């Protein structure tokens, strides 16, 4: 067995026995890469009617009629003839596609056919079964968790031995950086080094898993997948408020919300029974898509792209499948059809995208208090003036206003039509719009049994909490939220256009001027009522009419809630500001008013009476104190009466919808549970069901990568045919099953429930595999440069946030403040202004907000925080499964010269100066602050020399010393310490976990 | 080697000479040097697919979309039809950003004349370009898929309308590496009001992030953090870099991870950048005639200054330079907009051609001038927005020009209908332009691929044809 593996590393030599060719490992990658594009699942692209991705297809052959593969008979297999032939017109793949088979690949295919041409199901689609943990009679290293058995079993086969454990300072730094993202203090290191308890390390691990910083560290990784950012993206790239979602992720991870629940709440929290505020906030995962606010765009087109993104990100994050390939055509490699792509699309296409106010508990409490106080004060209003005066003033007001009041009759349309917009009539006769809105919306309403001789038509634009900024309009991008733009108000009666002579205001008149470029708007009055009245040139005699409301502007701006009323009152009509329910009472004889109607009028009087103005002032003052809750972006499933249909889009193009499709999952995966509503909630539950072969494998693999720098499957985002096979298939499956069905009793960490991420982390960091030293011998480097086999510990460059946070922590500057709106640490203003269309004035935060952890830094998509992008942090424009790890000159310049790192170096210098002891003691302490371990004698000698050299030079140049150290006492010395600290921050070791 | 001997070795070798190699030597006690060398340099010059004429590219991106109808594509018919709507069959089904498709026609705003031996027609607001018109190829029938700025700009730069794919500069530096290690391979400058597509326009997308364009800024350090903090002089910086290299070498000896040597190499390059960037931006040694040719005041940021810097970068081996000049989005007063933007860019762009030619660099430098789409033959006028005599976005046909490295000079390619609405002859899509740019560099756009998310991606997606008739 072993010689085969070794030989395989060098060159494939033909082997005679069937067992040695593994279809999944050896054959499918070749067929997939070289053949499937033309002979794979995509029927539209299939050449010569031949498909090689199934055994049936290979046996049947193509249009030539010859079977492509005859098991066990290489000489009869057309496939082999065509790949071995020298005839240019016959050889496969055709020379034009420029992907010739290598001699080794040809040999493998021949051996496979000889051995029986067995097809096997793709490893990632095979249902998960728990593999047996290998038994190692003579282990070559400690076996702390079953992970070690799998790893060592493989090392044994390769003739390798595990590395010795890392020393305690190295190990504690590693596990701190991995679990909470910041290094330990020298005191924490000392405590661990001195702890003789056998479970000293486990205690550290448990403490870190319980630390609130754990959630901050792991939230950042999840936010890369969620493509989180604090701006909308595209040209305008305006700020958005979705940080409550970011905080939800931190809390969920700290609470060890099991990954199945974590999944369900983010994908479908709004659909859970009695969804809590937090569960709705969680749906922000898929609201992190971008929003194009550029003037003139087609909003539905960019909504389509956002849904495409949701589909692709879901498939990448949970299924590890490159679903995006099937947007435009059936997948070239994996068994996913284009229709199946749009079936998955349909789940995500049926949601609205509102903004949700998220009051903090304190705000909620304050709001409740204020409301109670306001109620108390309001209750006192009727007695403020004394009974006699009150009654007198009220009676006068009623008499005055009865003369003004206009008798309006609310119209209830017989039919309503709004195109993509759904219009529905409410109990009060108002009409609410929902569904989609575009740059040009036309509402058509018809009326029957109209009163005779209509002299005026009133249009009330009404507020509604369901609308952006409380309405009355539906504008949600580009223009002011809640705005509307009524371009034209066109009335037709009995088939004839009705001439409207004038409107109640100049602004309203723009809706009847025949010019669609002008219109009536909310005039910056949001969350409140606006009224326009239109007057026919002659009283309207027809009893039926059709009304068209046209909303046309370079961004969507239709009305979200409105009400129509008419009056037949002759003579001049002056519209009042009176609320409809008050005015309608006032037009009737008070003798007929009910007690409730008296109450309506009286309450209104209390809110407007001149005589009570002074008494209302404290109420107004309290109202102004009401806290404005932050908002966040959420998904909200559409109501059943108004679903959004989904179509297959030819070539993936927005403008080419074809046949309608219903929600569903790809046939290659287990079906949805029968009888369940095919909605996002069912999809989310299906993703984390025990039957799903992918989600657990993909998830544990991503976590493995986070610790070891490489996944067991290297292609974290591709578990399909083109992905790489796992290095340790049994370990991957064991972890995936153990994740869902915990058996190892080792852990008190986290909830202990199935799908506990903290438990998974503990299992990994407690392993001997994880605890190995990261040193690499030349032999090992030659044999396993990528550390696939894990004969040594991980050594990986830190992520941008870890680097910044570690530096701030070492300097004692790092703020422990958690949560809240994103902050603006120092960086040159030009980063977010120069050459950026949607420029942002980067007003540097004050106080501790300058020193918050990196995940709280304001993330602007079109101009990201410079330090973070230099160290490969994503912009939030796309889902990032694995950050690139680069090593560049620009990173060096950042570490050397960026103001933040100079600030850190200066703070470190101040800390060192306050540390008692001689130069070597101080140097050692500084070294430990930055790198955790203690310096060697050689390192200490070099650093001492450097420090002394600089001190001498600063002593004769105090101006320079001031500039480097910042003002204060002992500048030459402090400046020298600053430079020494700066050098330590720039060592490879500082930016590396090892 | 003893400690002292090592230190001498460093000192005597001077600054910046193969520190990484030294680091390997120092680690010699532990392992053979070959195992400890830095990872292969991602910018090491690579062979093209076939010999290409161009070695470098300067992309003058006129963000906001200049009006082809008022600069290049003269349409007398529009004068005749001014004020009248276009025929219904032309405007049917077209989407516009701001105007209604039945808006009236707007005639060209400027006088046109023929120039040079090629007789190319140009508007009077491009007097400088008129002088080099025989050196450029004008493409009058370019079309794109996008009609909004951010997607349009991202599309021209990455071949796709959404952020997330690698930009041309990233693809090209990934494909060819770079001739210098003292400056970035791919530089981005901006001289106008702001780029709608943002950093997605020079993003490396899913290519390794090292291929991201490096911003050269107008304010402060040309490259962020390229100057040492106040008070740290060259000697201190050198001492610091030496100490970092020494301590990294010591650690390399213990840990054995070649990544450490790579880090040291990156610090060496940072040191070289600190010298090379100020030298590059110091225009005081440029002859007066050259400064006058461009119309540059050495310290004042301008498009012309960016053009001159681009020429200096090409001389120093930079592979791809993007200069964004934004502000052509003439929804109102297209005439005033063009006067102002041509005033800011015409001389610099033309001077770049003249200067490259004078230095013998034009044959090996590809220059591209153009925006993300064109502008409508119809007028944009909207009293509510205070707009009049403007033009809206027009993706169906627009004009760009290309010059130098591999492009046939003195030609006009492509025609549009008499209204300038649709191409009628030699239409080229943006993907074709991209394929052609790669071709000029010796890159086959179908072969320059990168495996991501399960498939091989390329700049031109699954489209694009090299525009052979414009090749020299």
Describe the structure.
The complex is a heterodimer of chains A (994) and B (472). Chain A contains 37 helices and 22 strands. Chain A has 994 residues and is α+β, with helices and mostly antiparallel strands. Among the domains of chain A are: 119 residues, no CATH class; 147 residues, no CATH class; 153 residues, Jelly Rolls (Sandwich); 95 residues, no CATH class. In chain A, strands 3, 5, 6, 8, 12, 14 and 16 form a seven-stranded antiparallel β-sheet that branches. By secondary structure, chain B is an alpha/beta fold. Chain B is built from 15 helices and 17 strands. In chain B, the strands form five sheets. In chain B, strands 1, 4, 5, 6, 7, 8, 11, 12 and 15 form a nine-stranded mixed β-sheet that branches. Chain B has a two-stranded antiparallel ribbon with strand order 2-3. In chain B, strands 9-10 form a two-stranded antiparallel sheet. In chain B, a hairpin with a 2-residue loop joins strand 16 and strand 17. In chain B, helix 2 packs antiparallel against helix 11, helix 10 runs antiparallel to helix 11 and helix 13 packs parallel to helix 14. The N terminus of chain B is likely disordered.
Short note summarizing the structure:
The complex is a heterodimer of chains A (994) and B (472). Chain A has 994 residues and is an alpha+beta fold.
Main β-sheet of chain B, in a few words? 9 strands, mixed
Second rung of CATH, namely the architecture of the domain at 406-411 and 429-575 in chain A: Sandwich
Rg of chain B, nearest Å: 25 Å
Tertiary shape of chain A: globular
Query: Number of helical runs of chain B?
Result: 15
